[in-house]
Structure of MBL fold metallo-hydrolase:
Amino acid sequence: MSTQQGSYITPPEFGELLVVSDGILWTRFKIPSKLDHINIYLIRDVDGWFVIDSGPASDENRDLWKSLIQNLPSPAKITGILITHSHPDHIGLAGWLEDYSDAPLYISEKEILQARLENRYRSTKDYSDLPHFYSRMDASLEDMQSLEEVWEYLDMMFGSLPTEVNIVKSGDTIEIGGESWHLWSGSGHSIEHICLQKASGEVMISGDQIIEHITPYVGLNYMSQETDPLAGWLAGLSDMIDWISTNALVLPAHNKPFYHGDERVREVLQHHQTSLDKLRKNLDQWRTVNELSSVLGWAKKKGFARCLALEETFAHVTYLVNTGEVVCETAELSGVLYYQLA
């Protein structure tokens, strides 16, 4: 186990333990995608280690966990698990890890409800609503043919859900290792995403809410409970600026740790305003979500990335409809949605 600090830090190998801050270990688990990793953090507790997120389900990741727990600094046990949100790379192994470690698991109420909703879809393998949902965006035949494959790919990253959960919410405080960690939640990327910050302001664990060099997904998919995720995202980030300590080391779920999280939040807010401006400038005539995705630079995306591009475009234009800037009409025969400035 090694210790590194500063912007030159080299990420740990999969399953390797790295001291990233006093009393905090950093490791990585595997994701079967272009973004091939998720960062997992372990905080020293009074009698073991408190874990943030589980990684996606796979035999390889289960083996990594078993080896990692054996190699933890004494006492080599897990005392608690907090799941930041219900996306598969964060919750996929949560049920298994809860059983394996016999540790209490913490999650927000809306996230566990979202996880259970999606689990019902996975258990029935019912993808019948997918073609209709994406056809309203004027998805191409090529896009439609890849949809079921995309969702089956995601299904593989989910394992069993945790059977017993402790519900946490924004404003709560968790005691870990005799120190207080304050919780905050926001929507948009996921419905009630939890972040936690040390009371001293030295460290903030951000999950997918803030990531350096990556703008998190904010989209409308066929299982979304949010009707206007971008509105929730923009409001949440604006609130988060005041919550983040300006001195905090930000520990994200992907890429490297970084400082100046408030500045990164402002960059992401500006990114979305730029995207909205692009849409406004191209809605002087009726356009579909498919056409507008090209306006945002996503015309060449394929497979899973194409689905995300359509969903993000859908979320952005829906936001403009809800602000009254854009109107939407449905084609009578095809059911395709068309948008234009009001």
Observations:
- The first strand starts at residue 2 and ends at 3.
